[in-house]
Amino acid sequence: MTEKNQRVIQEDFALEPCKIEGYESFMEGLTNIVSKGDISEEMGEQIKSYTLAYLKTHPLDEFNRFKDDNYVREYIGRDSSGWEAIVMSWKKGNVTAIHTHPQFAGYNFADGVFLVEIFEEYEDGLKLAAKLTIDSQVGLFSIGEQGKFNNHIHRITCLSPTGHSLHIYSDDALKGAKLNGLKIYE
Ligand SMILES: [Fe+2]
Q: What is the Å distance from ligand 1's center to 130 Cα?
Protein backbone atom coordinates (compact mmCIF):
# COMPACT_ATOMS: atom_id res chain seq x y z
CA MET A 1 0.00 0.00 0.00
CA THR A 2 1.50 3.32 -1.02
CA GLU A 3 1.96 5.97 1.62
CA LYS A 4 1.80 8.77 -0.93
CA ASN A 5 -1.27 10.94 -1.14
CA GLN A 6 -2.82 9.33 1.88
CA ARG A 7 -4.70 11.18 4.53
CA VAL A 8 -3.01 10.92 7.87
CA ILE A 9 -4.64 10.69 11.27
CA GLN A 10 -3.77 14.29 11.84
CA GLU A 11 -1.50 16.71 10.02
CA ASP A 12 2.00 16.74 11.48
CA PHE A 13 2.68 19.16 14.23
CA ALA A 14 5.85 19.77 16.10
CA LEU A 15 6.15 17.12 18.75
CA GLU A 16 8.89 17.99 21.16
CA PRO A 17 10.28 15.41 23.53
CA CYS A 18 8.34 15.73 26.75
CA LYS A 19 8.08 14.27 30.20
CA ILE A 20 4.85 14.67 32.05
CA GLU A 21 4.95 15.13 35.79
CA GLY A 22 4.16 11.88 37.54
CA TYR A 23 5.08 9.77 34.53
CA GLU A 24 8.84 10.36 34.36
CA SER A 25 9.58 7.00 35.93
CA PHE A 26 7.28 5.21 33.52
CA MET A 27 9.05 6.85 30.58
CA GLU A 28 12.47 6.10 32.03
CA GLY A 29 11.60 2.42 32.33
CA LEU A 30 10.24 2.40 28.79
CA THR A 31 13.34 4.15 27.47
CA ASN A 32 15.52 1.56 29.18
CA ILE A 33 13.71 -1.24 27.39
CA VAL A 34 13.61 0.35 23.94
CA SER A 35 17.20 1.57 23.97
CA LYS A 36 18.54 -1.98 24.28
CA GLY A 37 18.46 -2.67 20.57
CA ASP A 38 16.31 -3.20 17.52
CA ILE A 39 12.58 -3.70 17.82
CA SER A 40 11.80 -7.40 18.18
CA GLU A 41 9.09 -9.72 19.47
CA GLU A 42 11.12 -10.04 22.65
CA MET A 43 11.21 -6.27 23.10
CA GLY A 44 7.48 -6.14 22.38
CA GLU A 45 6.80 -8.68 25.12
CA GLN A 46 8.96 -6.71 27.52
CA ILE A 47 7.13 -3.47 26.74
CA LYS A 48 3.79 -5.23 27.18
CA SER A 49 4.72 -6.81 30.54
CA TYR A 50 6.19 -3.53 31.75
CA THR A 51 3.12 -1.52 30.76
CA LEU A 52 0.59 -4.01 32.15
CA ALA A 53 2.48 -4.20 35.44
CA TYR A 54 2.39 -0.41 35.60
CA LEU A 55 -1.35 -0.31 34.92
CA LYS A 56 -2.02 -2.80 37.72
CA THR A 57 -0.76 -0.31 40.28
CA HIS A 58 -1.54 2.97 38.49
CA PRO A 59 -5.20 3.39 37.53
CA LEU A 60 -5.74 5.99 34.83
CA ASP A 61 -8.77 7.55 36.51
CA GLU A 62 -7.20 10.98 36.59
CA PHE A 63 -7.48 11.05 32.80
CA ASN A 64 -11.12 11.95 33.07
CA ARG A 65 -11.46 14.21 30.06
CA PHE A 66 -13.99 12.60 27.75
CA LYS A 67 -15.62 13.79 24.56
CA ASP A 68 -18.83 12.62 23.00
CA ASP A 69 -17.52 12.66 19.46
CA ASN A 70 -13.96 11.38 19.81
CA TYR A 71 -11.54 9.65 22.12
CA VAL A 72 -9.09 11.93 23.91
CA ARG A 73 -5.32 11.50 23.49
CA GLU A 74 -3.01 12.69 26.23
CA TYR A 75 0.76 12.32 25.91
CA ILE A 76 2.45 11.14 29.06
CA GLY A 77 5.90 11.13 27.49
CA ARG A 78 7.84 11.34 24.31
CA ASP A 79 11.49 10.46 23.88
CA SER A 80 13.85 12.23 21.47
CA SER A 81 14.16 8.93 19.60
CA GLY A 82 10.47 9.18 18.76
CA TRP A 83 9.08 6.66 21.24
CA GLU A 84 5.90 7.99 22.80
CA ALA A 85 3.34 6.96 25.40
CA ILE A 86 -0.22 8.20 25.20
CA VAL A 87 -3.19 7.67 27.48
CA MET A 88 -6.47 7.50 25.63
CA SER A 89 -9.74 8.23 27.41
CA TRP A 90 -12.87 6.79 25.88
CA LYS A 91 -16.59 7.15 26.12
CA LYS A 92 -19.07 4.61 24.87
CA GLY A 93 -19.33 4.83 21.11
CA ASN A 94 -15.98 6.58 20.61
CA VAL A 95 -14.36 4.84 17.66
CA THR A 96 -11.06 5.33 15.89
CA ALA A 97 -10.71 5.56 12.15
CA ILE A 98 -9.53 2.36 10.52
CA HIS A 99 -5.88 3.32 10.65
CA THR A 100 -2.26 2.24 10.38
CA HIS A 101 0.78 2.53 12.65
CA PRO A 102 4.51 3.13 12.96
CA GLN A 103 6.86 0.14 13.24
CA PHE A 104 5.92 -0.64 16.84
CA ALA A 105 2.40 -0.11 18.17
CA GLY A 106 1.49 -1.39 21.62
CA TYR A 107 -2.01 -0.88 22.98
CA ASN A 108 -2.78 -1.80 26.52
CA PHE A 109 -6.30 -1.68 27.90
CA ALA A 110 -6.55 -0.43 31.48
CA ASP A 111 -10.29 -0.36 32.19
CA GLY A 112 -13.48 -0.55 30.19
CA VAL A 113 -14.77 -2.79 27.43
CA PHE A 114 -13.51 -2.45 23.89
CA LEU A 115 -13.96 -3.94 20.48
CA VAL A 116 -10.73 -4.35 18.52
CA GLU A 117 -11.02 -5.11 14.82
CA ILE A 118 -7.81 -5.99 13.01
CA PHE A 119 -7.79 -5.80 9.22
CA GLU A 120 -5.53 -6.99 6.45
CA GLU A 121 -5.18 -5.68 2.93
CA TYR A 122 -7.34 -7.60 0.50
CA GLU A 123 -7.68 -6.90 -3.22
CA ASP A 124 -8.47 -3.19 -3.51
CA GLY A 125 -9.69 -2.94 0.06
CA LEU A 126 -9.56 -4.61 3.43
CA LYS A 127 -10.69 -7.82 5.05
CA LEU A 128 -11.41 -8.36 8.74
CA ALA A 129 -8.65 -10.62 10.11
CA ALA A 130 -9.57 -10.67 13.80
CA LYS A 131 -12.24 -9.30 16.07
CA LEU A 132 -11.59 -9.19 19.81
CA THR A 133 -13.72 -8.05 22.70
CA ILE A 134 -11.52 -6.79 25.51
CA ASP A 135 -12.94 -6.60 29.01
CA SER A 136 -9.84 -6.92 31.19
CA GLN A 137 -6.30 -5.57 31.34
CA VAL A 138 -4.86 -6.87 28.12
CA GLY A 139 -1.92 -5.74 26.02
CA LEU A 140 -1.59 -6.18 22.27
CA PHE A 141 1.28 -5.12 20.08
CA SER A 142 2.33 -5.24 16.48
CA ILE A 143 5.68 -4.94 14.77
CA GLY A 144 5.84 -3.78 11.18
CA GLU A 145 8.36 -2.24 8.84
CA GLN A 146 10.88 0.24 10.14
CA GLY A 147 10.39 3.83 9.02
CA LYS A 148 6.89 3.14 7.67
CA PHE A 149 3.57 4.26 9.03
CA ASN A 150 1.34 1.88 7.10
CA ASN A 151 1.75 -1.06 9.47
CA HIS A 152 -0.95 -2.98 11.38
CA ILE A 153 -4.45 -1.91 10.40
CA HIS A 154 -7.07 -1.72 13.12
CA ARG A 155 -10.09 0.03 14.55
CA ILE A 156 -10.94 0.36 18.25
CA THR A 157 -14.44 1.02 19.61
CA CYS A 158 -15.33 1.69 23.24
CA LEU A 159 -18.32 -0.37 24.38
CA SER A 160 -18.48 0.61 28.09
CA PRO A 161 -19.63 3.94 29.56
CA THR A 162 -15.96 5.01 29.85
CA GLY A 163 -12.56 3.38 29.45
CA HIS A 164 -8.81 4.02 29.34
CA SER A 165 -5.90 2.61 27.42
CA LEU A 166 -2.17 3.23 27.33
CA HIS A 167 -0.48 3.22 23.94
CA ILE A 168 3.22 2.90 23.20
CA TYR A 169 4.53 3.80 19.74
CA SER A 170 8.00 3.81 18.26
CA ASP A 171 7.26 7.00 16.35
CA ASP A 172 4.63 9.68 15.92
CA ALA A 173 1.41 7.68 15.69
CA LEU A 174 -0.39 10.65 14.18
CA LYS A 175 1.49 9.91 10.96
CA GLY A 176 -0.50 6.72 10.53
CA ALA A 177 -2.92 6.66 7.62
CA LYS A 178 -6.68 6.76 7.84
CA LEU A 179 -8.18 4.05 5.67
CA ASN A 180 -11.87 4.75 6.15
CA GLY A 181 -13.76 4.51 2.90
CA LEU A 182 -11.99 1.44 1.59
CA LYS A 183 -14.15 -1.51 0.66
CA ILE A 184 -14.29 -4.12 3.42
CA TYR A 185 -14.58 -7.66 2.10
CA GLU A 186 -16.28 -10.33 4.17
FE1 LIG B 1 -4.18 2.34 16.59
A: 14
